Amino acid sequence: MSLSVRPQRRVLVTKINRSQSFAGVNSSADRPFRNLSAFTPTVSRKTGSRVSRMFSMSHKSPPPKVPQPNRLDEVYEALKKGLTAYLEVHQLELEKLSTQIRESKRNSRLGFLYDLDKQVKSIERFLRRLEFHASKIDELYEAYCIQRRLRDGAHNMVKAYSTGSPGSREARESLAEASKGYKEYTENMCLLENELESQLGEFHVRMKGLAGFARLCAGDQYEIFMKYGRQRWKLRGRIEVNSKQVWDSEEMVFLPLVTEFLSIKVTELKSLANHVVVGNVSCETKDLFAALPQVVAVDINDLGTLKLSLEVTWNPFDKDDQPSAASTVNKASTVNKRFSTYNQSPPDTPSLREQAFYVSVHHAGLLRRHGQW
């Protein structure tokens, strides 16, 4: 990785499953990812804390000078898998709502059916937007692959002309033309790589807290510093009695990057001039492209006695104008609550006797109003 990963730091890659561990690699010693269970410590938030966003410009970073085709292939495969999972989850939600509409047409309130129909149309719009987004990513990747093949061909031509005798004028012109083409294709690859990076969406990271085996004590203070390319997130927390934790920040939005890894540094604040670095790890992020939120745990030290618990939610779009259907699956509890409210006492269709009774009561009210009774 030519942009930010140091040569002495070798990052090992492994897959991250939902609600499983998110282990890091220590910068001082190479070790594999650990399979750890997720932790959910009690975290309280100070008043006034808001979600931070790290948006530098319209694009997250300037185009790289050297393309990384192998890394882009890995990110593209993970991205396509995440988009496919997103489509499947929302398609299942759409089928469930459509089934509920068919079953409730004869025995539900009109307002309830109208609300269900609005949700169905919203999810359909979101699915169309997801499909268009996936097709755009496919087009960018195909264009990237074409430029990569052209660049490889130009590289072979430069190598062939360089090894031969460059005495003739035609050979020198062909070498200059091949070198010019190689440079042009390299720049095109960098631009396409940056454009595809701008289509990766957002990572919404929520601080869940620290967890440790007999390590966290009341009164301990910690500082967590996360670095993701040019994006930074620093937060401080304190361990209180009853294992409660108070942090000055709880949520952060990171824009996904292609060639960068998430660096996490945890420092224990003992006094004003005495800070102890507990651990400094670098984590893989390409497996965070998932349809549902993931609760992940990061190994901070080598022994795994201190872990950082995070909740990561991937949003395939990096703008705030996405329809409400995008949060339909992630906020299923709200939808189920709405469904249960309407399904508690669905009104039955009145019988003929009841209809005749309602009509007679209505006519009696009209006669009484006009003074004829």
Automatic annotation (TrEMBL):
Residues 16-361 form the FAM65 N-terminal domain. GO terms for cellular component: cytoplasm. It holds the Pfam family PL48. InterPro entries: FAM65_N (IPR031780), HR1_rpt_sf (IPR036274), RIPOR3 (IPR026136). SUPFAM superfamilies: HR1 repeat (SSF46585). Residues 50-69 are annotated as: Disordered. Coiled coil: none annotated. Signal peptide: none annotated. It comes from the Eukaryota. Belongs to the RIPOR family. This is RIPR1 regulator. It comes from Platysteira castanea.
